[in-house]
What we know:
The protein is α/β, with parallel strands linked by helices. It has one domain: Rossmann fold, CATH 3.40.50. The chain has a 9-stranded mixed beta sheet with strand order 1-9-8-7-6-4-5-3-2, with helices on both faces. Helix 3 crosses helix 4. It is globular. The protein starts with a helix and ends with a helix.
Amino acid sequence: MKTVSAVILAFATFFSGFMSQIDFLINPQKYNAITLDISGLPAPVEEPREDAFVELDGVKMHYLVYGEGDRAVILVHGNGGSANSLKEAAQYLANDYTVYVPESRCHGKSSDPGEISYDLMAKDLNGFIKALGIEKPVVIGHSDGAINAITLAALYPDAPGAIIACGANSRPGTFKPYFPIGVWVKNLFMPDKLNDMMLTLPDFTPEFLAKVTCHAYIVSGQFDIMWLEDTLYIHENIKGSDMAVIKGADHSSYMSHDGRQTYVLAKSWMDEKGI
């Protein structure tokens, strides 16, 4: 019976994915399908100009700072990541902006207070912004960092000037089945509160998403780990938000794997919005 169930699940996943891609190819305007032109970019900034810690309420947060532009950008890494995960993105963005790259609680060199949730990480981000006196930053998050950016904007609407949420899911059930199954199996052998969080959170209701009032750009890759319909759902429930699905991209290819694409994605949208 278990074998039959596994086969049915695999077939259903394949069929759903196939139909989703057909819809994407037939109706690219529905998803605002885009391609990122990475030609003619400035050279990346080599090293951060600051490597420091800040004491927040319940957590000691490690962060890096790149560049000295007038506009502040905060890059937020994903689950299990660190400041190094978005290093190349920071190096390119530093040509135009002051880029802060904090490490979330329980990640990197930041302290581990023993508990973690998206609400707690949003609280930390809000504290980070206040502690450093950052004025209305553009918060660019990848994966769990994108969930953190949305949560920050909903719970602390005065903190961000804008958010760019790349690869956020609205709830665990919107992942393509292979991903949570892999996390669940890994958690059986190496239990981790970071995995527990991914398997149980977030829960972005329409009412919660409606609390986001700043400029918002909801982005995913064509071959992301969540269904494209979930990107649409988040976009449609954040009033006035923009959306894009990057052609040929997966969950990380345009963020942690290629900082040039992050730069083009963020700068083109910010310039368009006059941010």
